[in-house]
Amino acid sequence: MVHQPPLLEIRNLRVEFPTRRGTLVAIDDVSLQIGEGEVLGVVGESGAGKSITGAAVIGLLPEPGRIAGGEIRLNGRRIDGLPEEALRRIRGKEVGAIFQDPLTSLNPLYSIAAQLVETIRTHLDLRPQDARRRALDLLKEVGIPAAEDRMDGYPHEFSGGMRQRIVIALALAAHPKLVIADEPTTALDVSIQAQIIAVLKRLCRDHHASVMLITHDMGVIAEAADRVAVMYAGRLAETGPVADVIRRAQHPYTHGLMGSIPQLTARTDRLVQIEGAMPRLTELPAGCAFHPRCPRAMDRCRADRPPVVSAATGHQVACWLFEDAAAPAERRDG
Amino acid sequence: MMDAPLVAVTGLKRYFDVSAPWLSRLLERKSRRLLKAVDGVSFRVARGQTFSLVGESGCGKSTVAKCILGLHGMTEGTLTFDGREITDTASRAAMAPIRRRLQMIFQDPYASLNPRWKVRSIVAEPLRAFRQGGQSGGGVRAQVGDLLRSVGLTPADADRYPHEFSGGQRQRISIARALAARPDFIACDEPTSALDVSVQAQILNLMRDLQREFQLTYLLISHNLAVVRHMSDSIGVMYLGRLVEVRHGDALFTDPRHPYTQMLLHTIPSLDVIGQQRTPLAGEVPSPINPPTGCHFHPRCPHVNARCREESPVLRAVPAGEVACHAVQEGRI
């Protein structure tokens, strides 16, 4: 059997933001993989580093951020540290992106058709009329009603949900292998959210694209993702198959996070409360970043940072509670 | 039987004039256009309970809260508070003692606190405005300290500025400010929508603790049905300016009647069903400027018939509440 490398492999990624008051480490030693056709959910609270991880993959880190360590491989080929010109060819062609606010992803001065045709012709060698036909097909696929008549309309003529559908069409215009969807439903009403998640899942399946779905909404993850990575303060807390992480959360942070979500199906008197708030990147504590809020913190947690160990098949946790459970071979230190 | 409600809203209407300017109307022969943000809403909130309004953006839920607080005038309808009609807002002096008892918490804790004021001034503002807690500086200082402590902050936080706090802590400051006036009723407009889930849990728990401690009555505005279920005694579902269903207790979740409520509940992702695709609610909310005739929901409704397109349904009793739907009344669903 030929060993198939994962479609996207992030290894020991470190992203830094040099500031006047010192260097902030926004992403610290994060490793993730996304297999072909897989949907990886990246979940965490604001400031956990989930969006920065996505931005690092498409080379769109906000200034003055930089990748300070580790590597990012797409189909086995390194894509971190590529020159801008090479990155531009990857963006759109191999990696598509969907952002939270569809209005800022679309140019208000160009018609929908013009924007789609431009993207298609930048990356694919098609004649203008063929590109326009492909644009129309894509708009039909994402469910724009009367696409033929409306494709020459401008973004402001569409509702929020329709705009997000157009952004999905744009992201998939050049047959990318991977789509980074950063909070694609956060700006939308609940009844529209379900529509957009359904469209995103269907299209990525039909176009054989993998998805990195970045969101703060565990419900969206439960519904759409195959695997999930939970991030906290720029580090990976837990990763595994979505059912395992939701039903058998191992990390005390994930555990608290699940309990703090009010449920529709059952009524509890009191929600589980994680005391305090996520530390600022300027004030990260020593050891495990979660220890000041952790109900099960031990001395070791305050001193040493826990390595990522296996808790079950494909289910990994960065927590000292599971150090003994891990197979010795999987420990990073001897 | 329900005892006398603290707040009763009857036939509340609030229209906004969104017509083109006078000259354009004259030249282009356009007619006046009215946005019926709230179009005949009635409900009662019992003392010490939480009544929630849920619905998608633009359904008019925040406008209802602002009308009760007097931040918007009412186009039509009556409002009673603690047995007194407060519809006529003409006399400021007569309203002042009532204003104190009605307070509000807003969605965005970054926009609702003055960045140039210290927390002490922010929390003390209602004390000064309503002349509570004596005139001595020491009395106000002690009260601010107590208020901050009751929302889980420390008296020392009074000397800091809002930007020094996280989103959740800022929402605690907003709550302390609302409590400073010693209100009976607090309208909470999406109080946790801008917060992360773990912080949301802290704020929701705090709101419930404070409700018990101070016998507060809440009007909770939210689009999050799970939050609403967790917090509410009664719930009203709004669609395009009208209430389509009002239910008490858990009835809305265990036995939803209105097709819109049913579809709304169906679209919420649940942690219990993993990898299962929800049936998305078809269509979008139509414009409130030009709403559909009859039942506003009829273009998206699977149970629509000719009557729904023409006659707008009124709320009628069902077990544990009321529903406005022809299909339910005719026994079609």
Task: List descriptors.
heterodimer; A: alpha/beta; four-stranded antiparallel sheet; disordered C terminus; B: 333 residues; alpha/beta; 33% helix
Layout of strands and helices, then pairs:
The complex is a heterodimer of chains A (334) and B (333).
Chain A lengths: L7 E12 L2 E13 L4 E5 L6 H8 L8 E9 L2 E2 L5 H7 L4 E4 L3 H4 L6 H12 L4 H14 L5 H4 L9 H12 L6 E5 L7 H17 L3 E6 L2 H7 L2 E6 L2 E7 H6 L4 H8 L39 H5 L4 E5 L2 E4 L16
Parallel strand pairs in A: 3-8, 3-9, 6-7, 7-8
Antiparallel strand pairs in A: 1-2, 1-4, 4-5, 9-10, 10-12, 11-12
Helix pairs in contact in A: 4-5, 5-7, 7-8
Chain B lengths: L6 E11 L4 H7 L5 E12 L4 E5 L6 H9 L6 E6 L2 E2 L6 H10 E4 L13 H11 L7 H14 L16 H14 L4 E5 L7 H18 L2 E6 L2 H7 L2 E6 L2 E7 L2 H4 L4 H8 L39 H5 L5 E3 L2 E3 L2 H4 L4
Helix pairs in contact in B: 4-5, 4-6, 5-6, 6-7
Q: What is this entry, summarized?
A:
Chain A contains 12 helices and 12 strands. Chain A is an alpha/beta fold.
